[in-house]
């Protein structure tokens, strides 16, 4: 199976009055065609910056310091705005977190979807663009699409707005879809419907999806592959089965233990102690060491490499070094996300 997106050793930083923020640090990822890769981690770990780096939607204060981005077999690392405009929509599309701030409140939803269709197909007539917009609304599960295409975003519920945003993202049949926490603003019932819709669209259109989230319950429902991110780095990478049934990084252990299933019968949820480090001055060794009860001396001195566990599974922790003491995973045999 070919990879639609290849990110190799990518580092992205921001210039700020306080100093250089190293938001993404030496990240390597592959996104196969027709698969959903979930990017998981705490707020501020660099998930959204990584997605925006690929689409070149970063502010002027940001810069790609090193690494490469290959999309559809083409190296786009040094592409400028003009070249990226040709790719946005056809190669990439993005579904943002809050649909109400994504949609234009004074423009009918159908017109907004039709506009996205026409941007990438100038030859299409307004009538055909509207017809395509109605088809997309039906694709994302909006009932009575023809009638509702004339309504405004304030006439829609949160779930219908997010479906409309997905229709806009799919207007030009993108090969790669970025979903940046698209269910965070929705209630639990609607969230489940949107997640099922993502899965349905992915299987129907064979779109490769990079799904950004901090919710491991969401990961279990939609993902094929999982990348766990901490302090700008990927610390564990594997299939959903690898991450939920055989996690190896202590940070992944902490995330899984924070699930409500681990706290049944208790008054409080498990929590990872401490705070993430400042990325203006990242720690010398493993960034998670100060919060890691299993940390070794070398964790404070040297960044661990990615240790290969299997063909699909790897993790960046010194606990996997042959010379490290053997630590029993606290996750083995425990509950997992349903």
Can you tag this structure with a few keywords?
single chain, 338 residues, alpha/beta, eight-stranded mixed β-sheet, 12 strands, globular, disordered C terminus
What does this molecule look like?
With 338 residues, the chain is of the alpha/beta class. Among the domains are: 100-173, no CATH class; 240-320, no CATH class. The protein has helices at residues 47-55, 81-87, 99-102, 109-119, 126-139, 145-148, 158-169, 188-205, 216-222, 240-245, 250-257; strands at residues 3-16, 19-32, 36-40, 62-71, 74-75, 92-95, 176-180, 208-213, 225-230, 233-239, 307-308, 314-315. Helix 4 packs across helix 5 (126-139), helix 5 packs across helix 7 and helix 7 (158-169) packs parallel to helix 8. It starts with a strand and ends in a 23-residue tail after the last strand.
Structural class: alpha/beta
Averaged pLDDT = 91
Question: What is the string of SSEs from the N terminus onward?
Answer: EEEHEEHEHHHHHEHEHEEHHEE
Main sheet strand line-up: 6-7-8-3-9-10-12-11
Helix content: 25-40%
> What would you call the shape?
globular
CA radius of gyration = 21 Å
Strand-residue fraction? 15-25%
| Total DSSP E strands | 12
User: Counting H and I runs of at least 4 residues, what is the number of helices?
Assistant: 11
Regions with pLDDT < 50 over 5+ consecutive residues? 333-338
Biggest β-sheet, characterized?
8 strands, mixed
Give the terminus-to-terminus CA distance: 28 Å
């Amino acid at each position: 199976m070919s990879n639609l997106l290849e990110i190799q050793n990518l580092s992205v930083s921001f210039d700020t009055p306080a100093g250089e923020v190293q938001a993404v640090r030496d990240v390597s990822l592959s996104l196969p065609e027709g698969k959903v890769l979930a990017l998981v981690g705490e707020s501020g770990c660099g998930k959204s910056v990584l997605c925006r780096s690929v689409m070149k939607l970063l502010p002027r204060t940001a810069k790609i310091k090193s690494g490469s981005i290959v999309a559809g077999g083409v190296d786009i690392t040094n592409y400028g705005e003009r070249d990226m405009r040709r790719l946005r929509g056809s190669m990439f599309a993005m579904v943002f977190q809050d649909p109400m701030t994504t949609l234009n409140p004074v423009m009918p939803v159908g017109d907004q979807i039709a506009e996205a269709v026409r941007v990438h197909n100038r030859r299409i007539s307004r009538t055909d663009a509207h017809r395509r917009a109605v088809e997309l609304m039906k694709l994302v599960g909006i009932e009575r699409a023809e009638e509702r295409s004339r309504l405004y975003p304030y006439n829609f519920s949160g779930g219908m707005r997010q479906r409309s945003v997905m229709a806009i993202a799919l207007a030009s049949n993108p090969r790669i879809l970025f979903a940046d926490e698209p269910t965070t603003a929705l209630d639990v019932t609607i969230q489940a419907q949107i997640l099922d819709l993502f899965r349905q669209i992915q299987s129907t259109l064979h779109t490769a999806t990079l799904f950004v989230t901090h919710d491991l319950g969401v990961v279990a429902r939609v993902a094929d592959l999982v990348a766990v991110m901490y302090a700008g780095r990927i610390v564990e990478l594997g299939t959903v089965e690898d991450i939920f049934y055989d996690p190896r990084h202590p940070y992944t252990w902490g995330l899984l233990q924070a699930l409500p299933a681990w706290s049944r019968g208790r008054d409080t949820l498990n929590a990872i102690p401490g705070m993430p480090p400042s990325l203006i001055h990242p720690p010398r060794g493993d960034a998670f060491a100060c919060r890691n009860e299993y940390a070794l001396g070398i964790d404070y001195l040297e960044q661990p490499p990615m240790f290969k566990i299997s063909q699909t599974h790897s993790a960046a922790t010194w606990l996997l070094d042959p010379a490290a003491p053997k630590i029993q995973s606290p996750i083995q045999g425990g509950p997992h996300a349903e």
